[in-house]
Design brief:
Blueprint (H helix, E strand, L loop, with lengths): L4 E3 L8 E5 L6 H12 L5 H10 L7 E7 L7 E12 L2 E13 L6 H15 L5 E4 L6 H7 L2 E12 L12 H21 L10 E5 L4 H9 L6 E4 L3 H7 L9 E6 L6 E10 L2 E9 L3 H18 L4 E6 L3 H9 L3 E14 L1 H7 L3 E3 L8
Helix pairs in contact: 3-4, 8-9
Length: 363
């Protein structure tokens, strides 16, 4: 594709242009820009293959920022299709990803040129654009025309209190106090509200999603005033495909009589913390989500994890369910979200609440 736009600065100098890149011919140039400016060079080739070439909807796009004074690109950003349900309507969303500008060009004008150009182009192909930029990029994306939303907050449930008690307390005293506090917390979480009998459901771990995940997604009501990305089997298998730097497993709660899935949580252990990267419960959520959460807490404690952590942006009623299950907000809006839409869609979105987890992020 030819250059989409050429821009000069306020002095009429430094002509920058933004081009749609070829994922094949310019792959190494893209990888080098990511590696030099975003770190983790060992992951970049795999990221290009997985996130861009193998997107389950269609190939994602990469845009390069070029400066006429040098042959190599000086900036890069990605745009991938994500199917999103807004109530009863299905729309195509563009997920912004992997934005980087070379250190020698890291001033407002080049970054703004790249962001504005891709925003204008993106809204001609997608109903909305969204992303989760580095907080340092927020001034640029605001100026480019994006709205900055609150984003995801981090919720934590402490399972082994002794690991969080002050280190000046002797180890033996920490162990005794921790056991007592753990019992009190479990009693509290079990009483508000009372959990159904454990023989009314079964739990299991899976390495890959199966057809039951499609059935679970089909039970989600489409009139719940939520904005939620599609979570069918194809998407989950792609999003949580095995990677050398990620170890995902699916925790599944089912009805043993019918094998109907009541809910799942995508989990990743790290240094004693069980991170929940995505979760979804069958409708009605007010009944099945508490079952999923409490079953997960028991399983995590049984496996020796000291806490469970979840990054989540969800409706207020869902937050109340998290609180009753023992999760507490530790970092409000720890992962900001940016959004750009047409004016008509912006008005339509106002009554809706976002349902976002790490599944909706590009890593």
């Amino acid at each position: 594709m030819p250059a989409f736009q050429t821009v000069r600065d306020e002095q009429g100098q430094e002509p920058y242009r933004v081009e749609a890149a070829s994922l094949d011919a310019e792959a190494q140039e893209i990888i080098n820009l990511w590696a030099d400016n975003l770190g983790h060079p060992e992951r970049r080739a795999a990221k290009l293959e997985w996130f861009y070439r193998c997107n389950p909807v269609h190939r994602a796009e990469v845009f390069l920022l070029r400066d006429a004074r040098q042959p190599q690109a000086v900036g890069v950003t990605g745009l991938a299709c994500r199917q999103i349900r807004i109530g009863e309507h299905l729309v195509d969303g563009g997920l912004m990803a992997d934005f980087a500008v070379d250190a020698h060009h890291r001033t407002l004008f080049p970054a703004l040129t790249l962001q504005r150009t891709v925003l204008q182009l993106g809204l001609t192909h997608y109903d909305l654009l969204y992303g989760f930029p580095n907080p340092k990029s927020l001034p640029v994306v605001r100026r480019a025309g994006y709205e900055v939303l609150g984003g995801m907050s981090r919720y934590v449930c402490v399972l082994r209190t002794r690991d969080y008690l002050p280190r000046w307390i002797p180890a033996s005293a920490r162990a005794v106090a921790g056991q007592a506090l753990d019992v009190l917390l479990r009693l509290r979480r079990g009483l508000l509200p009372r959990l159904i009998q454990t023989d009314a459901y079964s739990v299991a771990w899976a390495d890959q999603p199966d057809d039951r995940f499609n059935a679970l997604w089909a039970t989600r009501p489409n009139n719940d005033l939520q904005v939620i990305g599609i979570r069918d089997c194809a998407f989950l298998a792609w999003r949580f495909a095995p990677k050398p730097w990620h170890r995902y497993r699916f925790f599944v709660v089912s009805n043993p009589a019918t094998d109907q899935m009541l809910g799942y949580a995508v989990c990743e252990p790290d240094n004693g913390v069980l991170h929940v990267r995505d979760l979804l419960a069958a409708g009605p959520e007010g009944h099945n989500l508490p079952i999923l959460l409490r079953a997960l807490m028991r399983e995590a404690r049984k496996q020796g994890h000291r806490s469970v952590s979840l990054e989540f942006m969800c409706p207020a009623d869902t937050v109340k369910i998290l609180m009753r299950a023992g999760l507490r907000a530790r970092e409000h809006s720890s992962q900001p979200m940016i959004l750009a839409t047409s004016e008509d869609l912006r008005v339509k979105l106002q009554p809706y609440a976002w349902y976002l987890t790490r599944a909706d992020i590009d890593e």
